Amino acid sequence: MQPKTDKKPDGLNAAYLKYEYAEQIDIADEHFDDELVEALLLKDGMSVVYGDSNSGKTFLAIDLACSIALGGNWLGRRSVQGVALYLATEGPMSVKRRLKAYKKHHGINKLPIVVVTSPVNFFEGGADDSHKVVKLIEKIEAELGQKVRIVIGDTMARISAGANENTGQDMTIVLKHADYIREHAQIHFMWIHHCGKDAAKGGRGWSGIRAAIDTEIEVVETKGQKIRSIEVTKQRDIDGKGDRYGFTLMPISIGMNQWGKVRSSCVVIEAEAPAKVIGTKSAIEVGIMEFFAAEKTSSNKKRIVDFVLDLDRNRAAQPKPGSVYNRIKAMVNEGMLMEHQGIIQPTTWIPDHSSVIS
After folding, report:
1. What is the pLDDT of residue 154?
2. pLDDT above 70 covers what percent of the chain?
3. In the predicted model, what is the mean pLDDT of residues 321-346?
């Protein structure tokens, strides 16, 4: 027996679906006003900042929140001013101390950031907790007379406590409630997340998390390097994928303990991004060796540097010439390259040219 065609399942049929013909789409250039942080975050998007424990991802998220709250630049990117709401489910006291350090270091007091110190759970608390966040946003906007621009959930694991983060069945529920907040409050939702055992595979858990977000940002602390790196590993609708930034953490005294010892937190200090590590080799090092594989001859440093820079000419975060020169010097010191009178060649082959190092 055929179902009745006039019945509306759950009150919906094609007449209630929004649609638009492609021929109705205007081909004239648009004026885009959808970015919260230039070439990084969309106003109504969802992002994940992930990294290993102690990589600095929470310090970074707080620094970003402060930049948005002040309407300033963040690591060279312009932002739209607005209130930041920080769901400090992982460690509210730690977040407050880091904000104290930021205010002290920058010499400011007025900072429109709101820290939620109550636990929030989008899995077990579900709709109740996501609804509470939306109501709080409405209250904050009424009290401050400013638009809340970003909600930061720290961390995904704590805000989804009770869920199996490796299954779509559970994590879809968590993401659905973050989407509810994002859509109803018209804000950007940023997750702080941990990486898995294999950091190269991105954030921990169900692969559908990555598919659901607009922007993914990896934070890496490389052993032996003072400078930490940030890389945009996914962008859905705006440029910026592959962009890299660098930062260090500078300790700031925030008080004394009961035995008179200094207690400190840290603030983010912008720095040039370190060379990207591929396995055990940096991207610059790989580029240098690609030069010799392609040219099959020894060379002066300038030709090598020009080759490496040309490899990355289409990337917004290409290395600086000084970084390539420094890596050449380091590779000579490490015995990977040989240098004689300014001419460079690998130690693993001797090319048949007159410029060979003797």
Report:
1. 97
2. 88
3. 87
Q: Which residue has the tokens 């890389």?
A: 231
Distance of CA 127 to the CA centre of its chain: 27
> Could you tell me the pTM of the whole model?
0.76
Q: What are phi and psi of 312, to 5 degrees?
A: -110, 25
Mean pLDDT of the chain: 88
What is the tens place of the pLDDT at every residue in 138-193?
999 999 999 999 999 999 999 999 999 999 999 999 999 999 999 999 999 999 99
Exposure string of 150-173, with b = 16+ CB inside 10 Å and e = fewer, is bbbbbbbbbbbbebebeebebbeb
Q: Would you say 74 and 37 are in contact if contact means Cβ atoms under 8 Å apart?
A: yes
Positive/negative CA dihedral, 70, 64, 139, 96: negative
Every domain of the chain with CATH number 3.40.50.300 lies at: 35-271
d(CA 58, CA 63): 8
CATH homologous superfamily for the domain 35-271 = P-loop containing nucleotide triphosphate hydrolases (3.40.50.300)
Q: What are the DSSP calls for 27-68, one per residue? A: -SPP----EEETTTEETT-EEEEEE-TTSSHHHHHHHHHHHH
* Residue 329, token pair as written in the block: 């010097």
Residues 90, 82: contact at Cβ < 8 Å? no
d(CA 225, CA 276): 12
Residues of the chain with CATH 1.10.10.10: 277-346
Closest CA to 312 of 220, 244, 229, 225: 244
List Cβ<8 Å contacts ≥24 apart for 6-11.
none
Beta strand pairing call for 299-300 and 113-116? unpaired
**Residue 114 tokens, joined:** 């709101």
Dist CA 341 CA 347 (whole Å): 16
CATH 1.10.10.10 fits 277-346, yes or no: yes
